[in-house]
Specification:
homodimer; 363 residues; L-arginine/glycine Amidinotransferase, Chain A; globular
Chain lengths: 363, 363
């Protein structure tokens, strides 16, 4: 498949909203014992549940290393396709292709440079070369041509689009030291607009408190549809999240999208703070160069990290009283989609959630 | 995708003739330096030529290890799809899936047990576990269900079918010590008929002289169409091949196919004996457990090892006077297909030829 030197905007391709129709979904099987406790077995069980759930609604492909291939094939439902691909970890949202489409029903992939959320500045593991090849390999699998963006570091979880010209990010992440320090905010915005085919960037100041991705927007705020967003929220003024949600709310309240619309903002209450237990910490291998998982560390738990698929929402829940609130809010906002709650603490322990471990292939 | 416990015959699936319409073709990128000289670079150039040629006519997928992925992607034409898959060597005809189809346009895969052409008796390398998983992984890629044949060793190069109930094999290979010594000839015939959906087995006594596969039929004899075969031939009575071709001719002359037809037999003259040179031998790593490539060894060169694809034939040639004869014969027998000759000495040095390194996906 071709490596293209043009941009999606030049060629009339755009990234559609996640709520638009999908042709499928990708995930990567978790494995590394220095990030996933107990040899990744508890995480694998939850990843399997996510894949089996999504696979009921849209064609699911699970990317798996050579070593874990047979095990994953055995554990996953028959309707999940298993394909072999070397990887450094299991965050396909971030290292995978961002697919773009045009009006003729053609699909292409954007292959951003991936550096494990900050490279040698504050990246989360080393090396990350296998992950940086995942987007190319996904494009090959799908037989689609590819825009390789060699001079720009980006993870798919750091953007959300409305499919109508608006992209939403956080300054905390996009302006971080470890990604594109050579570019100005304006230049970064131009790159986004060129490769996603957008006209307007919404710059939310910060993401979720203590999020190791430097505050990915996909844990903080998501589009319901053009002109309407869901924002992670807390009323607890003593929670460091309060200030972050408040400043995002104020920013978004005073902004318009690419079409000039004021945004409707829905507040989604976060669960009570979730801390890593001693047992959970002890199940993770200690390795130089990988972010440690220490007892008492606060996890970046947020219901906003849901996946919007064909006729359903896969929603992380935490056995928290706010689980029900999140489900109800989504039922109201997505009356045509079934809400599929999945107990996701094991994903959260690895540093993200359902949206971070999925990547849609639009139709 | 499902692992099935039934058989293709039970389910109404059959292996079509190679000359029937294809949906695509698979190959595996050569790599191991204990089989391919000079780090497999000369072989890779020829494999690329084969893939680029076939890719002009039908969708081509190249299976490549993690280590060689980037190199293969760079070397191959854009229209060749590159997918990652661990492998032990590059003979997808033998370790890959044998695809079967039904009248509704559905496809499934037969996943024979693979033991590197003879396992611990006279297999050609050890281990072979990655190769034995290739068929399963091809079925996953294509999203097709799979018949795993756990109790029967077979390579795809040891069979040819006419798509109308006849399968052609050699006794030399199918009855060899290293494959299914626990089964009688009759039981082996039954297995073939069950999994290929055939009624008649043609048992050619032996294959090409000094063929390390124990005489695969695909180097010796091929179907032009039902009722018509091409047989490797020599008039030189001093060539040990003479006796082999003669006995095959006599056998086939006295047999009928599943439909009761007498066979039309076309003789295809082999090239003059081709021996491994000192330079070629020295380019191969010496490794315990892998068949050595020694100076002066005779290679099992045969034009019969061609690949029949959509509108073309990919034909191995050897810079031999008989090249032209082979091309002419195929032009006569396949008037609607373009004959694509490819200089294939480097493939031959590895132990096979174009048919051995390709596997069609029928439509």
């Amino acid at each position: 498949m071709k490596k293209l030197d043009t941009t999606p905007k030049q060629d009339g391709f755009r990234m559609p909203g996640e709520f638009e129709k999908h042709a499928g979904c990708y995930m990567i099987w978790p494995e590394r014992p220095d990030n996933w406790r107990l040899g990744a077995k508890p995480a694998q069980a939850v990843f399997a549940e996510v894949a089996n759930t999504i696979g009921k609604y849209e064609p699911m492909t699970m990317i798996v290393s050579k070593a874990q291939y047979s095990n994953a094939r055995e554990v996953l439902n028959d309707y999940v396709r298993v394909v072999e691909m070397a990887n450094d970890d299991s965050w396909v949202r971030d290292c995978g292709a961002t697919f773009v489409i045009n009006d003729k029903g053609e699909t292409r992939g954007v292959d951003w440079t991936f550096n494990a959320w900050g490279g040698l500045v504050d990246g989360l593991y080393f090396p990350w070369d296998s992950d940086d090849k995942i987007a190319m390999k996904m494009c090959e699998l799908e037989r689609v041509d590819r825009y390789r963006v060699d001079d720009f570091v980006l993870e798919g979880g750091s953007i959300h689009v409305d499919g109508e010209g608006t992209v939403m990010v956080t300054e905390e992440c996009l302006l971080s030291e470890g990604r594109n320090p050579q570019l100005s905010k304006e230049e970064i915005g131009q790159k986004l607009c060129e490769y996603l085919n957008c006209e307007k960037v919404l710059w939310i100041p910060r993401g979720i408190y203590n999020d190791e991705t430097n505050g990915h927007v996909d844990n903080m705020c998501n589009f319901v549809k053009p002109g309407e967003v869901i924002l992670a929220w807390t009323d607890d003024e003593n929670d460091p999240q309060y200030e972050r949600s408040m400043e995002a709310y104020e920013y978004l309240s005073n902004e318009t999208d690419a079409k000039g619309r004021k945004l409707v903002i829905h507040k989604m209450y976060t669960p009570a703070p979730i801390l890593i237990t001693k047992e959970e910490s002890e199940g993770v291998d200690s390795v130089d160069g990988t972010l440690p998982r220490e007892e008492g560390d606060r996890l970046a738990a947020s219901y906003v990290n849901f996946y919007t698929g064909n006729g359903f929402i896969a929603l992380p829940v935490f056995n928290d009283p706010n689980d029900e609130k999140a489900i109800k809010l989504l039922e109201e906002l997505f009356p045509d989609r079934k809400i599929e709650p999945i107990y996701a603490r094991e994903i959260l322990l690895g540093g993200g959630n359902i949206h971070c471990i999925t990547q849609q292939l639009p139709l």
